[in-house]
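Protein modeling request. Please complete all fields; requests missing the sequence field cannot be processed.
Requester role: graduate student
Desired output: 3D structure, token encoding
Chains: 1
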Amino acid sequence: MQRKMDQTPFAFLSVLLFSSCLASPPNFVLLFADDLGFGDLGCYGHPSSLTPNLDRLAAEGLRFTDFYCTSPVCSPSRASLLTGRYQTRSGIYPGVLYPDSIGGLPLNETTIAEVLKPLGYVTAAVGKWHLGYGANGTYLPTRQGFDQYLGIPYSHDMGPCHNLTCFPPDVKCVGFCDIGTVTVPLMHNELITQQPVHFLDLERAYSDFATDFIAASAQKKQPFFLYYPTHHTHYPQYAGPETAYLSPRGRYGDALMEFDSTVGNILSTLEKTGQINNTLVFFTSDNGPELMRMSRGGNSGLLKCGKGTTYEGGMREPGIAFWPGTITPGVTHELASTLDILPTFAGLAGAKLPQVQLDGVDMTDILVKHGMSKRESMMFYPTDPSEKYSMFALRFGTYKAHFYTRGATHSGTTPDRDCDVFALLKTHNPPLIFDLDSDPSENYPLSLVGRPDLQSLLAKILKVKAQFEASMVFGESQIRRGADPALVPCCNPQCSPKPSCCQC
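Delivered output (504 residues):
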């Protein structure tokens, strides 16, 4: 079982001394992939993914083996990443937000950007937001602490696929997207600049925006926070001419290569501007792979199931921290989560934490000393959490207990019948318990019979569960607030007939 980080005055003093040694406030680059699984990167074992820049981050930085998101789908996972709080607290459940959703990430929630701005940080977001649009752009990044934004405010499949030309010469996407709604818009700050988006040029636009932001911040000697939630590798995949048809892994591999190339451009810019040694780059993903898409849906490696489920494949993700001169290259098996990024960035910057119930812990000791984690447990909520069922599973140390299991449409087509949508909700009392060190694939539940040690473990797990549930206050569901077709982004809002007239 993992040990808690040493809380002695000496350990606390060492962190203070480390912070005081920084020449200037550190910069932060947060890279967030979409539907990318534990087994999708070369540095995590995939034999045909071409990800040289992400592999460099892993080789020269710290690679996590036990890093988790908080939800097996997009919007709630993004909410917890930016706030350091489980999505149940902010109300980003059940499911995800849509272009016509009335709700979004509540403005009284504090994001990483809002934590850093009082210290003089300049902040930018580029890519997929997916935390609400709302009336007059109420929930856009520019209303949540970001000075600049370039991107699509929701998932790129939430519009007709006919506008999404993926590969030259004008080969349309393979697959199905939403129909009967507007084509996907590209926004700069709060203005729509393209509708539909020119997807073959999109990654170049994102790369230029990100590198220009870094260069301008460095020139002005301002500390910066860049948040890049990419659309890659969410289905349907696309890639511009610089990477299309180049990956041996097919269209999924092309999309992954395109994202990796932007990572390379960001690293190159950090080096050219002299910021590489004063910047923490952190990479992870929002949830597991969409296995129903087969070879076009990603890979969870040896982990069970994928997107939509609370098995390991749905919520254990790659996690990489890169900071030359500060983070010693290596691998950590300590338990950590997207929840921990906000308190870690705040601690390194010397920022004040939000005066709310946080679920994240500071990872600085793991990063700078390869030390032990303050986190001893991780809660697994389904896509539709409720106070009735609460969490579906709980990880405690190296063990994981499943109180409920259920498959998901997103994880269909695999040989494992536990994964698909026909694996209906099942209650486990006592819970299924797995030792994730010896059985990360969750194939062999441990028997409690004749095992007083496991019975004692279960008692501890149930105590942790009860204590956590007593602290959990479910926020009002933003997704259940409903939808209003008038809220769908349209660059020509007075035009008719909609949605076909929304083009610019």
